Amino acid sequence: MLRYTYLKDLLQAQWMLEPWTAASHQAIFRGVLMGLQMEKDDSPIQYHHNADDTGGESNYHQKRYINVVELNGIMTREDGDCHYGTKSIAKILYDNDNDENVIGHVLKINSGGGAADSVPVLADAIQHLTKPVVAFVDGMMCSAAMYAGSYCPYIIANSEDDRIGCIGTMIEIMDYPKKANLPDGMITLRIYASESTEKNLEYEAALDGNIELICKNILDPVNEKFLNAIRTNRKKSTEEQLKGRTYFAKDTVGTLIDEIGDINVAYAKIMELSKQAEESKSTNQHNTMKFDKINQIESCASVETQDGSATLSEAQLTDIELNLAEAVSEIEKKESELQKAQESITTLTNSVAQKEARIKELEQIINDADDGVENLHHNGTKENQEADDIDKAREACREFIKQFNS
Length: 406
What we know:
Elements: H1 4-12, E1 15-17, H2 19-33, E2 46-50, E3 65-72, H3 86-97, E4 102-111, E5 113-115, H4 119-128, E6 133-142, H5 144-149, E7 154-157, E8 163-165, E9 179-181, E10 187-189, H6 201-207, H7 212-233, E11 246-248, E12 259-260, H8 263-291, H9 314-377, H10 381-405
Parallel strand pairs: 3-4, 4-6, 6-7, 6-8, 7-12
Antiparallel strand pairs: 1-5, 2-3, 8-11, 9-10
Helix pairs in contact: 3-4, 6-7, 9-10
């Protein structure tokens, strides 16, 4: 039995579709509406790639995996009988992001787009993943698929001829005007209450051939969000690329995609980003340890840090600034005291040098006196007496110098 939510998506959604995809699926849509039964595709939407098979030595004691999730075919929010909707894909991403053995995700895309409301749930999941995610284009990433895929920080196309872009929004209406005569003689007539003058205004105007209102009020706002997302997520994209044209991958390298390479290039990129994330986490943990002193501030005693960051009120920020100002003042005071101490050391060093020079000068005088005393000892009694007096004076000088040196 056909799912109601899936059928509702098909009938009422605004579409972001690459035109060839839209044309090729119209017959399928009509068949589904007429009760066409299709065999369910049992091919896996998700699998794990062993990250330790990408080359190099592993420093991990446990197996590491890269989560690969496929985004194929027409995008809808809900699951269809033969495909997964973006709600299910988002859940697979979340579940694997919580697996400690998974180091990152590859979103493998081969889609020409789909319903506009299928994008937000997948885009939100990609933005909230805690582990690296890379988009790998394997055939086509157009319209709504381009919209969702642009939220991946890095995009790789498998082939130069993969199709990229088709950035735009469309709607297709299949109905009769408010009043119409049918070929079988029946008449259709939609009647609105007298106060419901604007109910379905854009829709009815479009059926009458006036598409201005449905473009202005419905398609343009949705499309503007699409364009702004591309401008934000793919900062090097050009305004020309936002007009709806579909490009070969080789013509979008550096703008809508980052490089061309096979699936192993995508795996290697996940390994690189995972390593960078681990290094960043280690740095943040180190910074968090330093940041723990913030709890010494009374108003911040209950602040909790996570990944090196914390949410603070304006009052707490003011208290932190005051504490920083006090810390800076204390540092300046200590630097001033250190400078004065260094100046005192320089002064004392110069004084010691002067005194050492004077000591050497006195020692030289004493040595010269020794030579004179020896000459006096060889003369008469008077000279001996003078020599003894000089000996006493000399010994007194030596004692003085000895005490000074000590």
